[in-house]
Structure prediction request, 627 residues.
Amino acid sequence: MSPLSRRRFLGATLAAAGAVAVSSVAGCANGPGVRPPKAAPRPLAIPPLAPSSRDAAGRRVVELVAAPGTSSFLPGVATPTWGYGGLPFGGPTVRVARGDDVVLRVTNRLPETTTTHWHGARVPARADGGPHQPIAPGATWEASWRVDQPAATLWYHPHPHGRTERHVHRGLFGLFLVDDPEAQVDLPSTYGVDDVPLVLTDRSFAPDGSFDEQHRNTVGLLGDTVLVNGTVAPFLDVTTTRVRLRVLNASSARSYRVACDDEAPLTLVGTDGGLLPAPRTVTGVVLTPGERAEVVVDVTPGRRRVLRSLSHDLGAVNGVARAAGADDSFDLLELRPAARLAPAPPVPARLSRETPLAEGGRTRRFVLAHNRINGRAMDMSRIDEVVPASTTEIWEFANRHTLPHNMHVHDARMQVLEPGVAAGDRPWKDTVAVPPGTTVRALVRVGPHTDPEVPYMLHCHLLRHEDDGMMLQFLVVGAGQRAATSVAGHGHG
Amino acid sequence: MVDRLAVGLFRVVVVLHAAMTVVQAVAAGGILQASAVGMIVHQAVGGTLLLVAMIQVPLAVLAWRPGRLPAWPIGVSAALVVVETAQVALGATGVLAVHVPLGVAIVGTAVTLAIWVVRARPSAVIAPGALATR
Prediction:
C-alpha cells in the first residue's frame, strides 16, 4: 500500500468510526421536550371515588378490576390503555378512614400477571402488593388490614418485577386517600370541588395513536404531552376563594416543578406521608415520580391563573438534565375562578400533630450507582436488610452516579434531615429525591406490622431503574422473631 | 514477505484499536446525554477494546522482528493493555474523575500510534557485503 492510500485508509477508518458512533448515539439521546397541546382546553376529569360496601364483619370492602380499555386523548384518535375500576386509563380514588378495617380485592382482567401496591400505606407485608404478591390473569387477590396512619394522599399502582414501568405507563394507577376523623383539619375538603386531585403523567404518541413505549433514555421513558387526570390541556372551574390540589407525580421518569404562571405563592400543606406540622409558603414544589404534594392556591374572582411546571435543577450534568425533562416548562392546569366565589376559611396555622421521629438510631447506608443499590441487583430470593419494627433509624442514600435517583421505601414513614429545617418542621415522606453526587439522610420508621418471611421493597422510583434491578428487599421483624435468610418459594434469581 | 505481512497486520490492528477508542469517546459523550445506546455501546466496546489491545502486543513484537519496525511500539502497546485494564475497573466502579482523563490519554496515545504506524517505514535490509562496494 502506498503511503498516501495508507493515510487515506487510516483517516477513513477513524472518521467512519466517529460518524457511526455519533449518529447512533445522538439518536435517542435527549428527552422529547413538551409540545403545547393543539386541542382546545377541556374540563379537568376528576377520578370518581371507588364504591365501597360493608361486609358482615363491618369491614370496608373495595373491589377493583384491572382491565384493558380504549382512551381518547387526542381528537379523533383512539389509544389502547389499561385502567382500574372501569376507567380506561387511571383508576377510581379509594378513600378510607383511619381505624377502618379494609378489604381490597383486585381482579386481573389483563393479559399479563400484575400486582397492586398501596404506595405509602402501612400494611402487613403480605398485603403490600409488591413483586411477591402476583395476580395472575383471571385471578382475584385480596389484601386486608386495619388502617392506622395519619391522613395522607397515597396512591396505588402495579409492582411486578421487571415490568412496573410497562404496567404503570399503560394507565394502571389511582389515588388512595386516608382520612383521620380524630384529627380533622379545616382545609378545603369537598372532593372534586375545592379538594381536587391532579395526577400528572407524560406520554408520547406513536402515529397510530398508541403510547410510545420505545424511546427511552437512561433516565427512563418520558413523553411530550402532559395528561392531568388523563386530560390534555385541562381547565378547572373554581367556585371558592381557596382550592386544595392534591398533586401526584405518576410519571415513569419525568419530574415536575409545580408553580403558578404569575409567580403567586402556593401554600404547601402536605407531602407523601401526610400534612405538614405547619403550612409553608413556597413559590414551587418539585415532585419526582411517586411523590405527592398537597398545595392550597388562593384565587381572585374572575382572574384566570395557570398552574405550570417549570424548569428545575436535578443536580445532573446539563445533557442528563435535558434528557430527564428538567429544562422543560409547560402548562399543567388553567384555574378559572367564577365571578363570585364562596369564601374559604384560612389555612390553619397548625396542621399535623404527629410526633416527629427522633434521632439517635443506627445508620444504614445505601450507595446508589449504575442502577444498583450497594452493588446489588434485585433478587427475589435474597433478603438484603432486616429492620426492627417501630424503631427509628437513619438511612443514608449516597448517589455516586451521574443519573438522578429517587428512593421509595415501602411501609415507611420518613423525615429527611436537612440543615435549616427544625425537627418539628420536617415533612413526612416515603419517596425522596437523591440528586447525583449527593447524600440524603433521612429518619426512617417501619412497622408496626412484622413478618419474618415476606419482605417489603426499597427501590429507585424512576421506573426504568426499578425494572433494571435497582431494588432491595427488607424484612420487618419484632423482638424475638427470627428473620428468614431467604425468601421462600424462589429459586436463585 | 513475512516481514511485510507482520507490519501490515500490526498496522491494521493499531488502526482498529484507535478507531475503537474514538467510538468509546463518542459513546461516553452519549452517556452524558443519558443516551441508552451510548451506555450499551460504551460497555460492549470497552471489553472488546481490551482484547484488541492485548492482540496488539505480540503483533508489535512481530512488527519489530521480522518486521523491522522500531521496538518502542511494543512498550506502548503493553502499557495500553495495563492502562485499559485499569480503565475498565475505574469505569465499573464509577471513579470518573480518573476514568475520564485516562480515557482522553488513551485516545490520544492510540490515535498518535496509528498515525505513526501508517507512515512508518521498516528499516532497510542491508545485504551482506553491500556497504563494502561503495
In short: Residues 2-122 of chain B form one domain.
